[in-house]
Fold:
Amino acid sequence: MGGFSTVTPPGAINTNVAVIASISSEVENNVANINAVVSTNVNYPMNQLRWGYPVEPIWTYGPVSTGPLAAGTVLLSQPVSSGYNAYIWGYFLSENDPNGNVFLIQWVNGTTVYQQMIVMNGPGTVNFISVKAINDGIPASPNTTMVVKILNAASTNALYMAGILYGQVA
Structure:
């Protein structure tokens, strides 16, 4: 029993070359499109992907404060620049007061004051970072000031410190 073979007619080779040239041209166009997309994505700020906004947040800290401190003492004050909104992605709170305390992170959006309350029942440190701003959707308005303060009076010789991870977006 014999096998059989096929013979490609000469005209078909020319057709195949034309198809290959067409496919090659299409591949080149697709590569150009992919390069354009990659170039755009490379230029797209990675911080936008990380933090949800085109900003790289930074930490800012207030000085160490030693008690006694009055109720409402501001531990950190961070102004928001003109033309920018500010978002808070984290906070650092530390105190060695045996009675603990309540920290308030406050910011103003428009004419409304917003705050996040963090209760510490005794000495300790909290370091919190979120991939979504804690004030997402209600940023601190331009020309306002974000503050961290204590709600209650602080004991004598108690140490307090506060910081926030924030960024300003035009």
User: Anything to note?
Assistant: The mean pLDDT is 87.
